[in-house]
């Protein structure tokens, strides 16, 4: 949710920044409605003051033995007018809220305009692996090794699903356990949230109403606000944990991570290079979230970026870190860095983590605040999130980057303790 005061004070600048995201903002209508709303609130306050003034006359008139029926009639009339203007102010407030609710977050000023073409690589880790033997893709390797069963995944659920089998299931679980152990070392609190969430969570995270068709809905009420949906990412749950609350300032930053499967309708175009596990309707992910003080928001962002990169470095995978242009950031985010792993058979990098800062955008939507010790007044927190990590592309990257001439897979050293010491999948 955008800050209406910021729009009022600097409409041209906000308009220019949103244009970097490709969003053409027209604030005239919302500002006109807000002016009308404030006028109605002013009328309510004036009428209440008048009613209080009239009410104060009653004891005096009674003491003097004068009739008060006319005063009561005047008060009833004032009460009706107050209710009328109050209703009008509330209706206008909802209209302003609804108009702001569909607007994207303002990108940070250092972001370039445009989309993918203006993304900037800021770090590269390791070298692209070279093979002295004919390289195989992860689909063929996983099928030959019997660790992923694509055929039976499709049999059970259709396209975009797969089964982990045997050592494949163990490798997936080893990845998740490795991520979890690293986050615990760093002092993050482990959360296992519900997978079914209410509409308010999608709205608070900034995914609804615009992207409400991209999730799996569980209930059939025509009014989606009464329905539940399957979470598309644990972020949707974690950033709403303290909705409507005022967090003590001394608790900031609050650091969480959660493991969940993620359920998403959009599964890409099923292009040849995205077969297998690269894009699917259900995948596993460990998600990091921080609630940060606005003054330390960038520090929190850098911490999350470094944590995601550290996981990839410890896995020994070749990857790059990219700063996204404004138009490539999601609607809810003010800035995003993507961690992209190299998939040799595809000859391209694929995102395995997006680390983003929403600033106060999500907190305004779900009303999450802290009490500022300097002013004593509630302020909105900043919320940040980052994958730490999603496995559905890390797994194929390991299979391909760690493949051997005989078709076996060397297990990354950091995962071996979670595989009972096993070093190779044959």
Radius of gyration over alpha carbons?
27 Å
Q: Distance between termini?
A: 52 Å
The secondary-structure element order is HHHHHEHEHEHEEHEHEEEHEEEHEEEHEE
Uncertain segments are none
Overall SS class: alpha+beta
Identify the overall geometry. Answer: elongated
The count of β-strands is 17
Question: What fraction of residues sit in β-strands?
Answer: 15-25%
Counted by DSSP, the helix tally is 13
State the helical fraction.
Answer: 25-40%
Characterize the main sheet.
8 strands, mixed
**Strand neighbour order, sheet with most strands:** 1-10-11-12-15-9-8-4
Average pLDDT, all residues: 94
Describe the structure.
- The protein is of the alpha+beta class.
- It has helices spanning 4-9, 11-20, 28-55, 57-63, 69-101, 138-145, 150-157, 167-185, 199-204, 235-238, 297-315, 361-366, 391-401, and strands at residues 120-125, 148-149, 163-164, 189-191, 196-198, 228-230, 246-247, 254-263, 282-292, 319-323, 335-343, 348-357, 369-371, 378-380, 382-390, 409-410, 424-425.
- Strands 1-10-11-12-15-9-8-4 form an 8-stranded mixed β-sheet. A 3-stranded mixed β-sheet has the order 7-13-14, with no helix packed on it.
- The longest helix is centred in the first third of the chain and has 33 residues, at 69-101.
- The radius of gyration is 27 Å and the shape is elongated.
- The two termini are 52 Å apart.
Summary keywords:
426 residues; alpha+beta
Chart the SSEs and their pairings:
Blueprint: H1 4-9, H2 11-20, H3 28-55, H4 57-63, H5 69-101, E1 120-125, H6 138-145, E2 148-149, H7 150-157, E3 163-164, H8 167-185, E4 189-191, E5 196-198, H9 199-204, E6 228-230, H10 235-238, E7 246-247, E8 254-263, E9 282-292, H11 297-315, E10 319-323, E11 335-343, E12 348-357, H12 361-366, E13 369-371, E14 378-380, E15 382-390, H13 391-401, E16 409-410, E17 424-425
